[in-house]
Amino acid sequence: QVQLVESGGGLVQPGGSLKLSCAASGFTFSRYRMSWYRQAPGKERELVAGISDTGSDTNYADSVQGRFTISRDNAKNTLYLQMNSLTPEDTAVYYCKVHIFRAYWGQGTQVTVSS
Q1: Which terminus of the chain has a lower count of CB atoms within 10 Å, N or C?
Q2: Coil, strand or helix: which one is 62?
C-alpha cells in the first residue's frame, strides 16, 4: 500500500533553515509527480511546491518562491523540501502528497518558526 512518511520538522528561529524529507513506499516513486502542502492552524491546506517525476520541472507558491527548494532522489524513493529564510508565517504542518487515482497523504511534520 502507498505510504508516505515525513520527517525533519521542528522548532527554528526566524531566518533559519530546515530540510524536510518524505520517504515513499508501496508505489513506483519515479513515475509520479510529488508535492508538498502545508496547513497552518485555522487555515486551509495549501500547495507549497510540486516536482515532476524526473525532477526536471518544479513549481512553487508565490509565498515561498526563492526561499524553498523541492527536490527528489528517485534512487532513494525520497522527496525533500529545503526551507531557508523561514518566517513565523511558515509555521504549519507540512505534508507530502502523491496522486495515484486518488490523493495519498503522509501524517505530516510540524514546523514552528518562533524566537
Answers
A1: N
A2: coil
**Parallel, antiparallel or unpaired: strands 109-113 and 92-100:** antiparallel
Cell of 10: 521542528
Cell of 31: 513515475
- The stretches of 4-109 forming alpha helices (DSSP H) are none
d(CA 30, CA 54): 7
18 burial (CB, 10 Å; 0-12 / 13-18 / 19+) is buried
The span from the first CA to the last CA of the chain, in angstroms, equals 40
Measure the CA–CA gap between 74 and 55, rounded to whole angstroms. Answer: 9
